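Office hours follow-up: a student asked to see two folded examples consecutively, so here they are.
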Amino acid sequence: MAEPVHLSQAAFDRLKAEHDDLVTRGRLEIARKIEAARELGDLSENGDYHAAKEEQGKMEGRIIHLARLIENAEIVESSAAEIVQTGLIVGLLYEGDDDVERYLLGSIEERVEGLDIMSPGSPLGEALMGHKVGDMVTYKTPTGAELTVEIAELMSVDDFQAS
């Protein structure tokens, strides 16, 4: 069985709508483009045809990717949490820095304007899980260095977007 993909309800709904749109409207639109390009003649030197087939391949890849995400989705609720968990925005203070850096802890599919994504499976993401505001967390970087961060704030995506 595949690893579960932690998504908020909003991200799940957005991905499901994109999948449904690509499977219906998207496939029909690309089929029309391919047919129109075929009517232009010799396929071996037909740039429109090759471009449409390439677009079709990319779209089918996206459809498969979305289907897997939807199939393996685990909906997480991230409101009013007091400990770091997937779906929350984590504000971190690095040693010697005065600026709080905010990250959305979750899947790239959760992306929110103005925030970088941090994977829960990354060294820092794993180290943060289960901690709370005020905790100092030390983690080992991929290069082997140890860094310490302070969890300065936790908030839901809804709270971030409302501010």
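And the second, which I mentioned at the end of office hours:
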Amino acid sequence: MESVELLRLNLMIEPDLQSFVGFLMESSRHFKGNAFRTSRACLELNQRLRAAGACRGQPFPVSLQLRDRSLRACWADQELCIMQTGEVERSSVEQLRDHLHRSTAATDPEILMQRNAAMERHLHETRARTEQELAELQVKLLSRQAELQVSIRQAETDPLTMLPNRRAFDERLNQAFRYTMRQRNSPLSLVMLDLDFFKAINDENGHLFGDAYLNRMAHILRSVIREDVDCAFRFGGDEFAMMIYADFGTACEKSKQVIQQMDGKVSVGIATIDQHTHKDFTLEDFIHASDSALYEAKNRGRGRAVVAGCAQGDTHLCGTACTVKVSCV
């Protein structure tokens, strides 16, 4: 005969387990099993079910099955053979199954109350445990987010000057450019800066002096921009940049301050976009305009700032609109 499930119960409380053992004994008598051997098997089953979590006020499904000519108690991924039955007639099996189902259909009201109380406790404990786990997960998530923010800052920070690096420049300038071109309510200036003759200064005075010189430049850039509004960057080597939310006049004034404080040894290229900039003007055009103005400043003798003509959207005028030479005493 194929496998037949005779009974299925949830062993939430002690009376459920006692009932299940009673049904096992009834089934053994029905199939004329040895009462002593069945009792021993039930004792072992009691221990194993309790160890697995039965009678703890939460659903614990078990079943009684007739399979492979044996009566078996099954739960989770485990089972225990209660007795060997040999060949049995189908009618006998059906009779036993009907009897067991009728026996479990009518339940003592006191047992029902105990079961409901156990279920209520289980739900309360589960809710409390879930809330605790969610709180712990939230703490871990916040910690992980903080770690991630630190990692991102480290990845986007120049380790010498602690200015944002080229990676941060690319991301922030892209966002600022798109916002300015879309909103058209405030200008944005890009200032590219090169330290003049830095290699010679580094070679003549040594790398420690060169590092201090770079940090001096970084400190000056921070001092001339507005904190949490504008931003200064170090690309690497002697190349720096400023992103200033202002017109080219303001950017030019800040550039003059940098040149003066660096003893006239900085070349600067400035490009600005505003409400007059042509809608087809691209981020690449913006960077190229500032870069071209920087090279124009170098070609005109260094130690000066050149403002590109990007405010009018005319990239052909880049590098020719305005030149500022700063005299340092």
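Two things to take away from it. Residues 4-106 form one domain. Strands lie at 4-10, 61-67, 70-75, 78-84, 188-195, 231-236, 239-244, 266-273, 304-307, 322-325.
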